[in-house]
Amino acid sequence: MADLKKQIIEQLNLQEVTPESIGNDEPLFKEGLGLDSIDALELIVLLQQHYNIRIANPEQGPEVFYSIRSMAEFIVAQQTAKA
Amino acid sequence: MLTIYINGTGCISPQETAAGGPLLARLHEYEQVRLATVDPDYKQWIDVKQIRRMSRVVKMGVGAANLSLQAAGIAQPDAIVTGTAYGCLDDTGVFLTKMVNQQEEMLTPTAFIQSTHNTVGGQIALLLGCNGYNNTFVHRGFSFENALLDTVMMLREGNAQNILVGGLDELTQHSYQILSRFGLYKKEPVKTMELLKSPTRGTIAGEGAAFFTLGTKPGEHTAAELTGISTLYKPMWEGEVIGHIMKFLEDNACTPNDIDLLVTGRNGDIDQDDIYEEVVEALFPEHPEASFKHLCGEYPTAAGFGMWLANGILADQAVPDVAMFYGKAPRSIKKILLYNHHQGTHHSLILLSHVE
């Protein structure tokens, strides 16, 4: 999850935010980091670029991108399914 | 005719123009061919969550716009008009580079969204919550002047009382390399205060943002009115420029003798400064002359810096030593004529008058 946090900070150019300051279960959108719809697109590209994962069903978005933990669990599940 | 007042100005440039205080009191002297802005702390105007998506030129524009509105004591203008030749070049470069490197796959939206020319005007409006008229002029060396002209027309038509107008351009690694290939810049570094006496071709590259809050009523600290503005595209010869200046002065009910200070856009390129010599010799042989491109560098909207300087001179009733090019600074300055050209094709005149 630490790597994922670093990737998100870099991709979204989050300023004055460190990996340690992002809680694993903290909401990424609205409250917490306060991300918005443009960031959601950036996160979709991040999953493609770093993990070769495509979100097939857009309705999955809110669930997958709820927090760092939900993203990490989604990545692990997708990689396990591929393997 | 309706008087148009300059009620507030804001400038971010290679000099410390955002800091306030006496005009150009502390010279940033360079010995290089490429000048970059001295950036203030943009977080004083922009939330940290929003600043992360903004490239330098957007921050420059938002910063200068805020300085101008603060100086005018206006929270909400009726309209926002910007002029930029190059727009948000940095993000354009980021987006195009990604397109090439990633073979048009997996492109992220942020750089694309931020790469349009009207991004700055849009961001200022979003931050202010301004739903009024918002327009951006992209006309190379006339971008700022046309933004100014649009503003003047709107104010004269009575469609607005206060308009925020500005000109801005940034220099990026990509643009500097490309423009260098056109031979625009000097081959060797040159000192700031020696540029205008340089005997070689080419100038120094610059960038910056200058914003003005123009209104139909003067504010508490208003020092100048915008008396006139005119542009001349690709004159055939110097006589056409001289004739155009004469006609411009006549249209504004004055003669060369009424001009207390001439401010020119000399840039130290022997080929491009010729026309200033011709104009001075024909119309203003004994006039004191100030210049500004040795301070901010050459860029298509540099006339914005010139107008910011002219307004400051009228406010202080003094010309900073670093800006004087010829003669002795006059004691009383009532009218300033700013004559600038960009690459010999885009000539512009801006006439400012002192407001007592």
Automatic annotation (TrEMBL), chain B:
Transferase listed as a keyword: yes
Segments passing through the bilayer: none
UniProt record, GO biological process: fatty acid biosynthetic process
Keyword Lipid metabolism: no
Domain Beta-ketoacyl synthase-like N-terminal span(s) in chain numbering: 44-178
PANTHER family membership: 3-OXOACYL-[ACYL-CARRIER-PROTEIN] SYNTHASE, MITOCHONDRIAL (PTHR11712:SF336), POLYKETIDE SYNTHASE-RELATED (PTHR11712)
Protein name: Beta-ketoacyl synthase
Originating organism: Chitinophaga fulva
